[in-house]
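Shall we go through a protein fold together, starting from nothing but its sequence? Please make up or recall a protein chain and show it to me in full. Go ahead whenever you are ready, and we will take it from there.
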Amino acid sequence: MFGKILKVEEKLVKVENLKKTIQANIINFHVVFEETNGGSGTSPKIVGEIIGMDEAEISCLLIGEIKENTFISGVIKYPSVTSTCRIVYKQELELIIGSQDYISSENLLIGSSSLYDGYKVTAKMNDFLSQHFAIIGNSGCGKSCGVASLIQNMFYYNNKMPRNAHMVIFDVYGEYHTALSKINALQGVNVKYYTTKTEIEDASSEIVSIPAYFLEVDDLAILLNVNDHTLLPILEKTLQYVAIFKGDGEKAIKYKNSIIAKSLLDIIGSGKSPNQLSDQIISTLNKFNTPELNLESPIVQPGYTRTLKQCLNIDAQGKMGALQFIIEFLNTFTTIEAFDVDRTELTYTLEDLYNALEFALMSEGMLNNTALFEKANDLRVRMHSILNSNQCKYFEYKGGYIEKEQFVKSMFLTRENDYAQVLNMNFNYVDERFAKILTKLYMKLFFNFATSLKQRASFPIHIIIEEAHRYVQNDNDINVIGYNIFDRITKEGRKYGVIIGFVTQRPSELSTTCLSQCSNFLIYRIFHPEDLKIVVSISSNLTNQDIEKLKTLRPGTALVFGSAFRVPLLTKLNLPDPMPASSNVNIENSWYE
């Protein structure tokens, strides 16, 4: 079939078509150009891909070299006019599409070659799972099945059980529960299910939970959807006050008296009417008080003693006659300086945080600054809304005090204290906004855990985010808290063993930083011009022919490429067993059943 080389133009080689016929079934097959040097075998073999043919010639695109039994992507040396051309041999093909020994802890089965019947496409386990990756494709193209298949392959086709794996799936539609059931049945392997459904009917699931006392300033900013960095000092005060209010030491109580007294003096100095002052002081002391400073605290006056509440009485002339005595009494508490609260084993609830936030608003003089108060009061309103919804249950922890490191490790333990290699986080029962919040909070928790380990990357965590374009965006976090947690992990996470897999149907809506940090890609059928542009931009070795293929791929077939693959390969991913609950609606069954 292959005759002499007719022409070499950059990476395109034209070869004489000896049969003078068009064989469409070999389009995209790989060919090898080698020198006729007496069979010494010392010259590298140059590899090409058939991209077109007519009755006169066959067009081959050069893609790499085989040297010392290794395929190297990219071409430095070009075939000479005396080189012979032939279809690739089996041993050579394995160097290109991956080892056919896929029941191995070294190799990860990706799927079956769409081009070569009976051949599998594999990647080195370490090359694929030590880098961030993205799975991209239109709705209905098979992404969820592909994700389920890859996870199953890691466990099904392995001569060693990955007992120390830590995989987390953010399952926004609750699709993967069934797909993971057989993994859960393997010896020594467990899947742990978390759910956002607050009334659990399935005993195998636990409600997602982050202890409220884990929340830092950045976490509160995310939780309360803060879009103005000037509000962060209020959240810092909130955490300071909640620690003080929950403390019961002598210093904590004295400082508590001090900040309450200063806040009441600010109210008195606000210039409001006596009636307004009385109401506001009573309201404040009803919520924030101590044994020494409350509405029943005695205030000694010449000749008699009255309670603070009695001193707030308004006389017939509309005046508060004992106001000076109240001021003198409050001044006795204001000489205590701030101190560092011992947070060791300190626990508090979301309600405690809400009360501390209210006090922070008051103590900062917000009540006297209408414009600033309205902006800051949004924080209180949002916190109150969470407290009065089922969302507050996600911040309850009934196990007493626990360190963050111990908490993360406990997430990967079953009720029987066995290791769980896969966590399925079902976020199907919360709205998109709150699912995004929970995802960010968990991502930060996992990342901080990994960076705190003494032995770097000793507890690798692989995180798969479904519908990633809904959560991993170019949002405002960097302008508020100074970073985007997804961007930070994709830039820094690999050295700590935190690896993310993004699953999305709209890569153009995904964070550009995150996508740029991905090293491996599985691209299913996509049509949108903006998404196609993104795909072109993320790989330097995709050809125009590859891009055209993406528009017509069948469901379940993906173009795979990246650092774990030698060349872009059309791959049919195996149907998972069991399947995820991600199939399209069946109109015929639903209409005519």
About this structure: The radius of gyration is 33 Å.
